## 1
Amino acid sequence: MHEAGSTSRYPGHLYTDAADASTVSMKILVVGGGCREHIIAERLSSEGNAILSAMKNRNPGISRLSDAVLQCDETAAGRIAGFAREKGADFVVVGPENPLQAGIADELASAGIPCFGPGRDAAEIESSKSFARGLLSRHGIPGNPEFASFDSESDAVRYIRSCGHDVVVKPSGLTGGKGVKVVGEQLRDNAEACEYVGEIFNRGIGGAGVVIEERLRGEEFSLQAVSDGKRLLPFPLAQDHKRAHEGDTGPNTGGMGSYSISNGLLPFVNAEDRNEALCIMQRTLAAMRSEGREFRGLLYGGFMLTDGGVKLIEYNARFADPESMNVIAVARGGLTDVLCSAADGSLSGSLSFEHTATVCRYYVPHGYGDRPVKGSPITVDEEKIAAEGVKLYYGSVNEKGGKLTTTTSRSFALLAKGDEPWDAAARIERAGQHIGGLVYTRKDIGTREEMQRKRSAGEALHRV
Ligand code: AMP
Ligand code: GLY
């Protein structure tokens, strides 16, 4: 990485450099109860830290790693800060976006507890799509499609009627990844887009107006990077699969699975494309600073490679789920030091990445995407899954009396490594035999055919 001293300004904690991460020892509170938080907690625990957790469900994987669990609404910033103080947490890592929007980092700062995750103002890069788009345009940063933001239905409708291209309608506020509708996918045409705008204003979806964008076409990819407000430490790229079913069909979901390849790029993304995306993120950080919203935490750019180059689809102010699992699994070095020093404003330590591919596949309740079946029993044979060389991360499930049940969200993820994605996918296929209950997964993620399709898509986009 960049300039850096290896000592932290945190008082009272023993800090070492990444090579000796096993001696780092703190009490770290992890906020969130999904697979992303499970792998974060597992990693921080393996680096010698004691884990505390705060989550709305009772995630068995995280609970097992924790000395104490607070089961609560994850946006209850004051309550979580109180728990952190009461349990003597030295540091807090926030997984999901909702607590960040609720100002958990600001609340913890007032309590004198450092936190990995931006304050409410900086988290607007995710929680306000109109702020994110506006920031790029104000600072002349490339990557925006044609767009306009509106606080009134009639202005938005008038704008759509004047557009000579298909549009995407986005509630500006947070909608858990399910509020965006694209003409040609969830919407038939621009007339239907106008109707959806009406629904957004009538029902208050997202609660903060709409952004109307030009519809882009291409392949999406995720670039995640730790930021101390000034510098970025990027992870390898990964690609999520948002649609519920094989072949990118069915409703949009929070993400059904993801893969990464051994060189840190993707079958359709070359080094130049990746650097273009990183450069957009670097300029965004500088813009945030200049507007008094220094961003310390994890900046996750959702990009699309189009025939017109790399475009920004959205920013997120947190690790991606599922792609966090792909990248943390291959990261070597002390993550604790990296996260703490970023929160402190002086990124130190370093990460290197194993040259291996990864595949992550979510198992979700039957009906997920439309009407998920909640509270149904699931069985998981952890030992047999581990014997296939596959990692299991628990998501939105509940455990009571040793029995697991589904919630309305993604239940758990299987993650495997391999020389090629299809080697990892084959392992996951075998491990999947040790799972029972009303859950389903996407069987195409990471397969040889899927990778070939991605490569061809990339060739077509680069040829133009
Ligand atoms: P977002 O919540 O902004 O990531 O949008 C959800 C999904 O909608 C993205 O993952 C894309 O698949 C799609 N999407 C968002 N913006 C655009 C756009 N301008 N053009 C085409 N698809 C888009
Ligand atoms: N990969 C989707 C998300 O984390 O929002």
## 2
Amino acid sequence: MKWQRLLDDTLHYVRPQLGQGVVADYIPALAAADPRAFAMTIVTLDGEVFSVGEATTTFSIQSISKVFTLTLALEWEGQELWKRVGREPSGSAFNSIVQLEHEGGVPRNPLINAGALVVTDTLVRFSQAGAIDQLLALLRGLCDDETIDVDSTVAASERVWGHRNRGLAWFMKSFGVIRSDPNEVLDAYFRQCAVAMSTEQLARAGLFLANEGRDPITGAQVTSHERVNRINALMLTCGHYDMSGDFAFRVGLPGKSGVGGGILAVAPGVGSIAVWSPALNRSGNSLVGTLALEQLSLRAGLNLF
Ligand code: GLU
């Protein structure tokens, strides 16, 4: 029970910090989250699940969805995707528009909002069943859990308050970088952000990222080893917006945050870790979640370097 003790110790360490930071308040559905809530789960490659806190409570995965849409888009569009989205850290906020005009409408990477909209454009164009149905099918299949779904209240709020994302999508359309109807892309993007999952589900879903693209429990090859290497490299360098360097420095693992307070981190060859704590730091990443990952990484010797 080494992992259980490590998680218990981690919670003990971060508990005094719970409540520090600010809960996302751009939509009412997120503003209502308890800033002191906390959960952390590790699923190891042999399928064992260890958790502390509210690990079965679902929350809005928000930008963590970008990892899974990227996985699908790379399967469908392959290398062509890199013509419309880069692989460099942005050093800018998650919803920044400033670099786009200088760089011909091509976003820096697929894990900032502009880049994620390009990825979702690929899903809209290539998916037979519809972008969100395909995303849900992937997540439900990975977790063997048909209950995973979009929170329609959050999705509706995202739609009402999505002015900046609308600006990004239409701006990229003017450069020809977005190929399909921006309204369709935005509708899918708002719904992917509103997918609700618990840390137990999220850690389970991310397990293929820690195992060369193959789900170690079902044996399913979700994507190739080479693609997983690339996805992990992007999570390490770009997964936390303008604090990606700080996250890599402190945690030393690929990770992707969401403004719902979740973070998915990957310990290659060991397991997949999800943490949730809704109060955020100034870059929109979970403040205590980052601290917890830093501690767990340190205590368990997970740092890749
Ligand atoms: N729904 C948010 C947006 O698109 C997601 C941002 C995030 O999770 O970082 O603005």
